[in-house]
Amino acid sequence: MVKKSAAIVLLFVLAISLFSPAAKAAEPIRVQVTRYTEFKELYTLDVEFPPGEEPRLVNGRVLVPLRTISESLNYKVNYDPGTRKITIGDDESVCIVLTVGSKQASINERNVELDILPDVRNGVTYVPLRFIAECFDAVVDWHGQECMVSIGIYFLSDKDFLFDERDSKLYLRDQTANKKHTFLTKLDFDVDWTSMNVVATEHGHYLVRFINSHGAPHVYSDNYDIYVADGKVVAEGHFGTAYKYSYSGANPVISADGTKVVIADNKNAVIYDDATLEPVAFYDLVELLGTDPGLEDKVFDDVDKEEETFYDVVAYGKNYLVVKSGLSKRMAIVHIDTGEIVWLYKLIYSDPLWLEYIEKYPSFTEDYGDLLRFVGDKDGQLYFEGLEWQTLPYVGFVYDLNRD
């Protein structure tokens, strides 16, 4: 009787075990990547892994094939079979070094310890997905019921700064493993086609420039500058909204000698001493250059925007400002000591018809203005280039600040 009861219990336990989740074949792990595209739209795709190289769940951690995940997330990867070291990086801010069979790793030369080993199986190198993705500022979540890892790419990243495209907030990066990033400011714009460029000053401060192109097909441009020192915002400026503004300027403006920082906001420009962080000069750009002739151009009658005079500071030196208008898109040199204004298209271009066209139609049929670019400053010589009738090669021009 006892033996019969034991047999029944054994059969019952066996039946349960056969139908339990643990006894079933392991469900494949999906990896899904979501990122922002233009117009703040989210784009989601499933990462496809080659047969036999599917992600594995080990001790509660998802391991994925290094090469596949790196290509899916646009990371560069290198594996040295001699040292068994794996290097993963991007073009901006992060370099990770792992070693197969070791929990020791480094992020930007800072040592960390993994809680699971990278390993090689059938010639394929597997790495911990969460660790890799979060090092590149991705948001990682595990969805157990769906057996899926979601990776959200919402940040514009720099080695010192993070910009969250979801809410337009800028953070100073915490370089430690704690990741307690410092909130700096919230920018007043909706992300569309946005880039971030960070420039360090000679005193170890930062200028962060955002360029936000928007409006189908991205015909408007805004520049946002944030001056950051000692973990705090010193000043902010905004240029735009400019229609088909060809000179967007990737870099914020630092004086030719590296000692001053320029923060402009369409109407005014404030010059800061980078050593003291104090404003040392103020310029009313509208008062200096007058009303933009582009206001008289009928091309703006059909544009759904407020028509007004506004200017962008392109360069700054001891005795000059290089300024470009936001409507007619003409570039001028302002001699600070004398107040003289020099409109450069009159000096650079030689074709009479081209010059007449610039005068008659300040914004042109394609609305690109005088098509001039500031190249640089060296020993009192300002270098420019432009397109005459939009033909190549560029027309080069040197302006001597010390001319008679």
Strand content: 35-45%
User: Count the helices. How many?
Assistant: 6
Strand order of the largest sheet: 5-6-7-8-9
Characterize the biggest β-sheet. 5 strands, antiparallel
Mean pLDDT: 83
SS-derived structural category: mainly beta
Distance between the first and last residues' Cα: 119 Å
Q: What is the number of E strands?
A: 31
Low-confidence stretches: 1-25
What does this structure look like?
- This protein is mostly beta strands and 404 residues long.
- It has a five-stranded antiparallel β-sheet with strand order 5-6-7-8-9, with helices on one face. It has a four-stranded mixed β-sheet with strand order 2-1-13-12, with helices on one face. Strands 3-4-11-10 form a four-stranded antiparallel β-sheet.
- A hairpin with a 2-residue loop joins strand 10 and strand 11.
- It is elongated and about 75 Å long.
Would you spell out the secondary-structure blueprint of this structure?
Blueprint: H1 2-19, E1 30-36, E2 42-46, E3 56-58, E4 61-65, H2 66-72, E5 76-80, E6 85-89, E7 95-99, E8 104-107, E9 110-113, E10 119-121, E11 124-128, H3 129-135, E12 139-143, E13 148-153, E14 155-157, E15 161-164, E16 169-172, E17 182-186, E18 193-200, E19 206-214, E20 220-229, E21 232-243, E22 260-264, E23 268-273, E24 279-284, H4 285-289, E25 311-317, E26 320-325, E27 331-335, E28 341-343, H5 345-348, H6 352-360, E29 372-378, E30 381-386, E31 395-400
Parallel strand pairs: 1-13
Antiparallel strand pairs: 1-2, 3-4, 4-11, 5-6, 6-7, 7-8, 8-9, 10-11, 12-13, 14-15, 15-16, 16-17, 18-19, 19-20, 20-21, 22-23, 23-24, 25-26, 26-27, 27-28, 29-30, 30-31
